[in-house]
């Protein structure tokens, strides 16, 4: 990714201000990460009559994909947040590159297992209708494609293109965080947590993330279009 428009002295004087974005993204990840931990605990409960075991029953026949998905998505969302901090890229460029390779692998695993689980697991219709089924496949596939395109762009030394595709991939990967913000008010007011409205709101969350991502991409690209502006690898 690129260093951005801030100078090195400005970055060195304001690390706290430069880290507000990753801090916000980490906060957005807290509830989904906690939910993932609970899901892993329910899988560990195995068979039995406990609520956790009954909830996890549909995953027990093939638990490996969901375990990989939770671990990979957790690392991708938490550590990936710091890939977008200009201060981190400026201060530790080698870490940015090395971590980027591992995080790309995590993102690919999260996307692939997300598609696999959508197709293979017997998810109740109340928790996944036709709309959400199609959107989940599109999101997982789009995340994998975005990471692949981002990787290709950086190999071509196209920093701006790399940055744009990685922003899109992360926006798709952060869908669960935005879904919490979108679903919670509706669940509080209606008392429901399933049905077609759930599918619509979860889809809306991914739409919000992509809209924000495209806005960020355009804002980052604008200075690069000015005469005399240069972008460097970081």
Structural features:
234 residues, mainly alpha, globular, disordered N terminus
Task: Break the fold down into its secondary structure elements and pairings.
Elements: H1 8-13, H2 15-18, H3 20-45, H4 51-55, H5 64-80, H6 86-91, H7 93-120, H8 130-155, H9 159-173, H10 175-190, H11 196-224
Helix pairs in contact: 3-5, 3-10, 5-7, 7-8, 8-9, 8-11, 9-11, 10-11
In words, what does this structure look like?
The chain is mainly alpha-helical and 234 residues long. The protein has one domain (8-224). The protein is built from eleven helices and no strands. It has helices at residues 8-13, 15-18, 20-45, 51-55, 64-80, 86-91, 93-120, 130-155, 159-173, 175-190, 196-224. Helix 3 (20-45) crosses helix 10 and helix 7 packs antiparallel against helix 8 (130-155). It is globular, with a radius of gyration of 19 Å. Residues 1-5 and 229-234 have low confidence and may be disordered.
